[in-house]
């Protein structure tokens, strides 16, 4: 028996108090591919990015201008940007430092993202700096980017837990977020890098941000599904008023800090829930499914999206 | 790098308005195993059931007295019950008809579950009866069981969508539920058999039940994770006041009506969320992880629980 009559979209049942539209910030080509072992051909990355943009995603993070020594998967960052057409505003790029920003500017980027760690240990392990030094460096990169007329988004890692330190104080996260907003970021994306957060934690973290003068309109949520909590956490985030969620087509990406292949929240699964809730995204689910399927096939792995698996 | 300092339980952040304790109704040995291709040895089923009960689960559905011609995986139903000790109250069994009830009574069962379909097509395809005939048959089985001093739970299938009919009217579901309550069921478990429901739909369905005089204390929710929505739907169910959720250790079970191996919500993933929300269940997560791991290993498949995979 197979599904014969089920419509390809869920029944719509809006929930009181939720936003009527949200943004899905697609991170598969950057956060996803940087964590995959395989190296994808430049033309396939470009095809993937253009397909996701065609599907209606307003923002599709394209790549990272990180050192190719550290992330060889994204060594073709400039070549990827060169294939995306004249308007690069929908295709932000991650810039880990001033050198990365210089390369991004040379490649024509008009939107960048910087990232910092909410915890001391991850800053030292991942960035080889203290948390304070990493924050200052990000602020400096943000200032340079703003001077050059770019928009700046901020990522905060390990907002819900840290693999070395364990619990992470929400106040510490909100202080880092506030510093990035002060440095000119239009939005901070709060990353549950190891996926340990749960729904009440999400609500609390957003509330603590509000108390630190980081308004909910400046907060995005970035969940990894390592413990299966990502969509429940989105639901809590919606109820807290958050209107931007990061996700990865096909759920590509891994979690390098846990013994599992489960990575980013799959864009398809997010879209399914938002559609069911009657929340507008402007995104065509079927086109995202198709783009994600091609990319996961190139990576030689099954899709990590349950919606894509069910519809496939 | 591996997780070194992360505690094995999430940080606790209660959410206003949620229940402080809930029941987890374990269905792995019945709903899970009936949908798996492999046949598990009777002594391993008994070991699984006892381990789950030892883990603190108050109710562990043990098996189904369905015809072995239809479900050979559960042909040893009587032998399984015989291995569970004297008190069988924590180990309900599914009885599809009067013949099943007779076998269950002979085997000493003291708690049974009956099931019906919310939709006409599924009743005809799965039970070879009209929906009305199936409901009458279930009511009759329930009456016999109550006469014999047993407790009766009711399952309603296809509550959120049907693979042949598509959309399912919440009113139709609530009418079936009301009939089962009228027939003496202490609780109805609303099954999203094909996993297509989303959070707002859950809230709406519970509200419609309330309007049909099916109080929320008599409603349990039974989600399949086919489209990744199960835990977000539990979150919505908690907010609607539901206090009993069905789940399967290791996420065992498949969804025979969709092209994917994804089946029941994994008990471990549910427990992770409930722990994070500070909701008492009385269940030890590590023991459930261990029991689920043994069973999925016997079935020759990876765990379907993301928590079990991450902690493993």
Describe the structure.
Two copies of one chain form a homodimer. Chain A has 312 residues and is of the alpha/beta class. Chain A has one domain (23-311): TIM Barrel (Alpha-Beta Barrel), CATH 3.20.20. Helices cover 40% and strands 12% of the residues of chain A. The first copy, chain A, has twelve helices and nine strands. The first copy, chain A, has helices at 28-32, 42-54, 77-82, 98-106, 120-127, 131-147, 170-182, 199-211, 230-239, 267-276, 285-298, 306-311, and strands at 23-26, 59-60, 63-64, 93-94, 111-117, 151-157, 187-192, 219-223, 244-247. In chain A, strands 2-1-9-8-7-6-5-4-3 form a nine-stranded parallel β-sheet. The longest helix of chain A has 17 residues, at 131-147. Chain A starts with 22 loop residues before the first strand and ends with a helix.
List keywords for this structure.
312 residues; alpha/beta; TIM Barrel; 9-stranded parallel beta sheet; 12 helices; 40% helix; metal ion binding (chains A, B); lyase (chains A, B); HMGL (chains A, B)
Quote the distance from N terminus to C terminus of chain A. Answer: 15 Å
The helix/strand series of chain A, from N terminus to C terminus, equals EHHEEHEHEHHEHEHEHEHHH
Number of domains of chain A: 1
How many H/I helices of chain A?
A: 12
Looking at the structure, what is the overall shape of chain A?
A: globular
In CATH terms, the superfamily of chain A is Aldolase class I
Give a count of the beta strands of chain A, DSSP E runs of length 2 or more.
9
β-strand percent of chain A reads 5-15%
Low-confidence stretches of chain A: none
Please give the oligomerization state of what you see.
homodimer
CATH class of chain A: Alpha Beta
Would you give the CATH topology of chain A? TIM Barrel
- Main sheet makeup of chain A: 9 strands, parallel
Class from helix and strand fractions of chain A: alpha/beta
Name the strands of the widest sheet of chain A in spatial order.
2-1-9-8-7-6-5-4-3
């Amino acid at each position: 028996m197979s599904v014969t009559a089920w419509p390809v979209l869920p029944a719509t049942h809006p929930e009181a108090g939720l936003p009527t539209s949200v943004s899905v910030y697609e991170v598969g080509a950057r956060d996803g591919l940087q964590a995959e072992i395989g190296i994808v051909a430049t033309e396939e990355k470009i095809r993937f990015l253009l397909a996701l943009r065609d599907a209606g995603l307003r923002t599709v993070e394209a790549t990272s201008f990180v050192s190719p020594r550290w992330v060889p998967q994204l060594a073709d960052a400039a070549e990827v940007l060169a294939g995306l057409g004249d308007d690069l505003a929908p295709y932000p790029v991650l810039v880990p430092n001033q050198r990365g920003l210089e390369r991004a500017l040379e490649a024509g980027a008009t939107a960048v993202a910087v990232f910092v760690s909410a915890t001391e240990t991850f800053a030292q392990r991942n960035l080889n700096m203290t948390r304070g030094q990493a924050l200052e460096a990000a602020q400096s990169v943000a200032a340079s980017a703003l001077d050059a007329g770019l928009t700046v988004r901020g990522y905060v890692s390990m907002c819900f837990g840290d693999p070395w330190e364990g619990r992470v104080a929400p106040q510490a996260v909100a202080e880092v977020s506030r510093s990035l907003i002060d440095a000119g970021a239009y939005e901070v994306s709060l990353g549950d890098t190891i996926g340990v957060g749960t729904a009440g934690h999400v609500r609390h973290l957003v509330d603590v941000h509000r108390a630190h003068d980081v308004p909910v309109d400046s907060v995005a949520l970035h969940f990894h599904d390592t413990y299966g909590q990502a969509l429940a956490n989105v639901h809590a985030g919606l109820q807290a008023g958050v209107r931007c969620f990061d996700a990865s087509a096909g759920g590509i990406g891994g979690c390098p800090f846990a013994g599992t292949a489960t990575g980013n929240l799959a864009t398809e699964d997010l879209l399914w829930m938002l559609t069911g809730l009657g929340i507008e995204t402007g995104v065509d689910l079927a086109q995202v499914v198709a783009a994600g399927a091609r990319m996961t096939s190139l990576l030689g792995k099954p899709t990590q999206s349950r919606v894509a698996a069910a519809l496939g």
